[in-house]
């Protein structure tokens, strides 16, 4: 028999759209699921991106083996405190912006149905919303993740924050905000467009708006891949810029010619292996957590017409 269906509340096909507060709460729930499943892959990605040439690690597997051998298994979860503390508001704000983006497009529309492209536009607004929150957290995370063996410069997230502020003020703490927006606005648009497109294909084959658990997981996985199809190159540039010594680069744009000169086009796709591996399960878990949280809230306090 078919698995228990998950009500696909992100569909606007004749059902009342979930409100901003519900999207905010459900987005935070999805974010926790995402980080818990994806942090080890993220650590490997950052370490691969930060090395010059192939000095430390031959590939992602070599990086994983050396990290565990030299620092222990839980080194894969280094820097997790910052994204875990920050992930609830970051994902919540992203989904809140997505909800607002959908509502804005539906305000003057004669139809209550949005196309996948329109979901993408709504998702880009969510990407803009979360940039201000995510930039300092990403900088803290990256600086902690590149610490390997030997004396550690930073003892934890708050120490990174204090030292960064002491060295260059709020501008140093917020370094990488513009490149983060360049990464996250289009990437978030790709994410929600791909998610809705995949779900619409499943709805058509099911003949119903209800989706099975595995279908939500598959749609979330494809959404994660679509997100990084855009986001990988800006992410490499962002990592280099945010972890560079103060004064090395005038701006994130200054990273591009140097990276191309030293490593060529492939330098912009460093860490693609662990990103692809992480993106599927992490975003599958994220969207399942999001949909289940919406379903739970609807069970407690049903929306009209639901």
Number of helices: 9
Strand order of the largest sheet: 1-2
Strand percent estimate: under 5%
List the secondary-structure elements in sequence, H or E.
EHHHHHHEHHH
Could you say which structural class the secondary elements and strand pairing correspond to? mainly alpha
> Could you tell me the radius of gyration in angstroms?
20 Å
Q: Low-confidence spans: pLDDT under 50, at least 5 residues?
A: 7-15
The helix content, as a percent range, equals over 70%
Mean pLDDT, nearest integer?
84
Question: Keyphrases for this structure?
Answer:
single chain; 306 residues; mainly alpha; two-stranded antiparallel ribbon; 2 strands; 2% strand
Explain what the structure shows.
This protein is mainly α and about 300 residues long. The chain has helices spanning about 20-50, 60-70, 80-105, 115-145, 155-175, 175-205, 215-245, 255-265, 270-300; strands spanning about 5, 210. Helix 1 packs antiparallel against helix 9 (about 270-300), helix 3 (about 80-105) runs antiparallel to helix 4 (about 115-145) and helix 6 packs antiparallel against helix 7 (about 215-245). The protein is globular. The two termini are about 25 Å apart. The model is unreliable at about 5-15 (pLDDT under 50).
């Amino acid at each position: 028999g078919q698995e228990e269906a998950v009500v696909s509340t992100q569909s606007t096909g004749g059902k009342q759209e979930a409100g901003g507060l519900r999207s905010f709460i459900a987005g935070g729930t999805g974010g926790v699921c995402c980080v818990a499943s994806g942090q080890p892959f993220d650590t490997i990605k950052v370490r691969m991106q930060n090395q010059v040439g192939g000095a430390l690690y031959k590939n992602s597997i070599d990086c994983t083996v050396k990290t565990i051998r030299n620092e222990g298994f839980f080194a894969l979860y280094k820097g997790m405190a910052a994204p875990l503390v920050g992930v609830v508001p970051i994902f919540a704000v992203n989904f809140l912006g997505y909800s607002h983006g959908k509502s804005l497009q539906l305000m003057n529309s004669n139809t209550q149905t949005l196309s996948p492209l329109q979901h993408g536009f709504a998702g880009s607004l969510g990407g803009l919303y979360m940039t201000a929150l995510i930039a300092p957290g990403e900088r803290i995370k990256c600086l902690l993740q590149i610490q390997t063996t030997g004396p550690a410069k930073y003892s934890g997230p708050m120490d990174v924050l204090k030292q960064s502020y002491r060295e260059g003020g709020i501008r140093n703490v917020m370094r990488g905000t513009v490149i983060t927006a360049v990464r996250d606005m289009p990437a978030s648009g790709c994410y929600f467009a791909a998610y809705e497109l995949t779900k619409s294909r499943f709805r058509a084959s099911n003949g119903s708006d209800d989706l099975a658990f595995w279908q939500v997981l598959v749609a979330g996985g494809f959404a994660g891949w679509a997100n990084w199809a855009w986001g990988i190159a800006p992410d490499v540039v962002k990592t280099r810029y945010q972890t560079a010594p103060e004064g090395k680069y005038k701006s994130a744009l200054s990273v591009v010619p140097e990276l191309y000169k030293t490593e060529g086009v492939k330098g912009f796709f460093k860490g693609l292996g662990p990103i692809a591996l992480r993106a599927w399960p992490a975003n599958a878990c994220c969207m399942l957590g999001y949909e289940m949280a919406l379903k739970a809230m609807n069970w407690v306090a049903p929306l009209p017409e639901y």
